[in-house]
Design a protein that fits this description.
Layout (H helix, E strand, L loop, with lengths): L30 H27 L3 E5 L12 H4 L6 E9 L3 E2 L2 E8 L6 H4 L4 H4 L17 E3 L4 E4 L4 H4 L5 E7 L7 E2 L2 E2 L6 H7 L11 E2 L8 H4 L8 H7 L7 E8 L8 E2 L2 E9 L9 E8 L9 H41 L5 E3 L2 H7 L2 E3 L1 H5 L3
Helix pairs in contact: 1-9
């Protein structure tokens, strides 16, 4: 029986990658290079932050906190009288001192409302929102707002889930009166074009003809979906905006776009704006507050100086670090030059050299450590 020589089967390939011989490069962070890097970054971030802050400050905004607005029918605030299923009528007035260039938008803001709670954020049915008809037993993700059962039958809630049930349902009408005291007129607004295009195109569909069979409205809704928005869910962009949950407890959501036509074609002119509010969304039960925001946008978006301040602070820190490393570099350079001069003066005809210390001793030279010389680089 002849013996065969077997080649090793676990030996890696003879290549630079498998033999770990790939060329590599590692930067040497000396004081000089660090100072230059930090100074350059500081010079970049500081002007960038200033530009962002100026851009943010160019946005015109009027914020109206109407949590405690007065009930128009009694001497109480709406926050004291409104409970789920009830409403309150109140009025707020805004004095716009200068024209607001268009396009102008209307937002509502909520504080201390945790849409990002895991159970709340998952309480919906994506298939149902696409327009499909689903039986109540297939809506378990929407519990406890999946179905309604009476003595004889079980009905699916449409749309189901805690998100849809808690939709923001305050309504606003805006009237404008010019500074000349002319008759007030309604400011036209629209809810079309407020949702993300991806939501309109892909996440929400039109209800099929049989999708409304054996369904009921969510408990907190005053009307069923077919009355609220004919052609739902495709046309209910207000619902789409609400269903896109916010990441933080204090947030704003786009509510309406002002229609720029006639005297409002260039934006909102200066004058007095009266906002009639149908107050139906209670917030005191969770210690929240709500507000209405009227404003325009810049190329950067809405009014928010956070990004600009972050750039300014980052640029300032980089400049301070750059100056610190520059001082370290200059001090180290001066200190090394002084030491070399002293060594040269006290060594007579011996010359300070860079090299091997043993060689320097035999030749009468003074060996200078390479690490000290590198501080000059």
């Amino acid at each position: 029986m002849s013996s065969e020589i077997l080649e090793p089967t676990r030996r890696p390939k003879d290549s630079p990658f498998f033999q770990q011989k790939l060329p590599a490069w590692q930067p040497m962070f000396t004081a000089k290079k660090s100072a230059i890097t930090f100074l350059v970054l500081g010079v970049i971030f500081l002007p960038l932050g200033a530009i962002l802050i100026v851009t943010s400050n160019s946005v015109v905004e009027y914020i109206i906190d109407y949590t405690d607005c007065k009930d128009s029918t009694q001497n109480l605030t709406c926050s004291e009288t409104v409970r789920p299923g009830s409403s309150c009528i109140c009025t707020e007035t805004v004095m716009v001192t200068s024209d607001i260039p268009g396009p102008v938008f209307m937002y509502y803001g909520l504080e201390n409302f945790y849409q990002n709670h895991r159970r709340y954020g998952r309480s919906k049915s994506d298939s149902q929102l696409l327009g499909m008809r689903l039986p109540p037993d297939s809506l378990s993700s929407c519990d406890p707002y999946a179905s309604f059962t009476n003595a004889s039958s079980t009905y699916a809630i449409l749309p189901c889930g805690a998100i849809a049930n808690s939709i923001f349902n305050d309504t606003f009408t805006v009237r404008y009166m010019s500074s000349s005291g002319s008759a007030s007129v309604d400011v036209p607004v629209t809810s079309q074009g407020i949702a993300w295009k991806s939501d309109v195109d892909r996440k929400f569909g039109t209800l099929t003809p049989d999708a409304l069979i054996n369904t009921v409205k969510p408990p907190n809704w005053p009307f069923p979906i077919e009355i609220r928005s004919p052609g739902a869910f495709k046309t209910d962009e207000e619902l789409m905006v609400w269903m896109r949950v916010a990441a933080l407890p204090n947030f704003r959501k786009l509510h309406r776009r002002f229609v720029h036509e006639n005297q409002f074609r260039n934006g909102l002119p200066a004058g007095t704006y009266t906002i009639n509010i149908n107050y139906t969304f209670p917030v005191t039960m969770f210690n929240g507050r709500k507000s209405l925001v009227i404003g325009n946008v810049s190329w950067l978006g809405g009014k928010n100086i956070t990004l600009g301040l972050t750039c300014v602070i980052t640029g300032t820190l980089h400049l301070l670090l750059g100056v610190a490393f520059l001082l370290v570099y200059l001090y180290a350079k001066k200190s090394l030059s002084t030491r070399l001069l002293v060594l040269f003066l006290f060594a007579g005809d011996r010359t300070p050299v860079r090299g091997n210390s043993e060689f320097a001793k035999t030749k009468g030279f003074i060996s200078v450590p390479l690490d000290s010389m590198n501080l000059l680089c």
